[in-house]
Amino acid sequence: MSGVTPPIPRAIAIRAVDWHLALLSGELDESALQRWLCEHVDHRRAWEHIQTTNQRLGSMLSPAAQAALLTPAGEQRRQAVKALSLLLFAAGAGSLGYQQLPWREALADMRTAAGERRRLTLPGGVQLAINSASAVNLQHNNEALDICLLAGEILLDSMGATQPALRVQSEQGLVSSHHASRFSVRSCGDQTRVDVLAGSVQVQPDALSQPPIVLEAGQALNFDRERASAPGTANELDSAWVDNMLIAASTPLGSFLDTLSRHRKGFLGYDPQIAGLSVSGTYPLDDTDRILASLQRTLPVRLQTLSRYWVRVLPA
């Protein structure tokens, strides 16, 4: 369409941020950058956009840039770089067509922001709880309540419903229940996690031609489009978010912080050295800063804080 500037692909945006961080750290190979800029017009557009945005919003972007520079190499640094790329390119979304949220999530029937949780009563009396940073589409017909999980996690309870039939479609497949049940479904990147707390459900990966897998109360599994893991034990403590709580019972600190990060805005990371420490307790999710502060009092850790939206947990 004439007059519409195409969006910059996310991979190019993230690579441009890497070049920008190299410039800030004094490690920039200028000849390598020039070669990259000449490879494609989008490379130069991304680089010029970063420089313009950094001049306009430099004071706001500084903590995010420091976050990416200070985070060690590995998955957490990649997350920090992605967070900085979202901030840089969301600032120019109007001119570049770049969106912070995938369009399906942005236009979802129901979605929650980081730190927000919702509970709803759906047609037929089904109870739906939507976890932090989640998005769903809903459709009700005479046969069942259809839910498309676009992101995040939901918990469904049809134990007292007049029409208990439910179908949940994720990126990887279908989770269905034809009788009264209580279960959660969580999107985990390229996998979907299902925990059955009451009743039973059927799990059908999209590309698996075999009959659906039946999960009974107390069972859980992960699945992708082609296969499913062997059923394991469901952990009802993982669903405490429905009551705005985070419960740990000898939980590895790394796993605890990964869960907590889904309930906070910004970046929450940790040093791998402290990932194996054990955490136990009951924590209200309405104040995640208080949770982090309590970890300093009970464990040999300290907080590295660049801003309210960038925190890293380190050995004391």
Keyword list:
single chain; 316 residues; alpha+beta; Jelly Rolls; Phage tail protein beta-alpha-beta fold; seven-stranded mixed sheet; 19 strands; 32% strand
- Helical/strand content category: alpha+beta
Q: How helix-rich are the residues, as a percent range?
A: 25-40%
* Radius of gyration from the alpha-carbon trace, in angstroms: 22 Å
Shape field: globular
The count of strands amounts to: 19
Please count the helical segments.
8
CATH architecture of the largest domain: Sandwich
Unreliable segments (pLDDT under 50, ≥5 consecutive)?
57-61, 91-103
CATH topology of the largest domain: Jelly Rolls
Overall mean pLDDT score? 82
Q: Give the DSSP E fraction (strand runs of 2 or more residues).
A: 25-35%
Quaternary arrangement of the chains shown? single chain
Q: Please report the first level of CATH classification, the CATH class of the largest domain.
A: Mainly Beta
| Order of neighbouring strands in the sheet with most strands | 1-4-5-7-8-11-12
What summary fits the major beta sheet? Answer: 7 strands, mixed
Helix/strand order: HHHHHHEEEEEEEEEEEEEEEHEEHEE
Count of folded domains: 3
Secondary structure blueprint with pairings:
Layout: H1 10-25, H2 30-39, H3 41-70, H4 75-90, H5 93-96, H6 103-106, E1 110-111, E2 118-121, E3 127-130, E4 135-140, E5 145-151, E6 153-157, E7 166-169, E8 173-177, E9 182-188, E10 191-198, E11 200-205, E12 213-216, E13 219-223, E14 232-233, E15 245-252, H7 253-261, E16 267-270, E17 278-284, H8 288-298, E18 301-307, E19 310-315
Helix pairs in contact: 1-3, 1-4, 2-3, 3-4
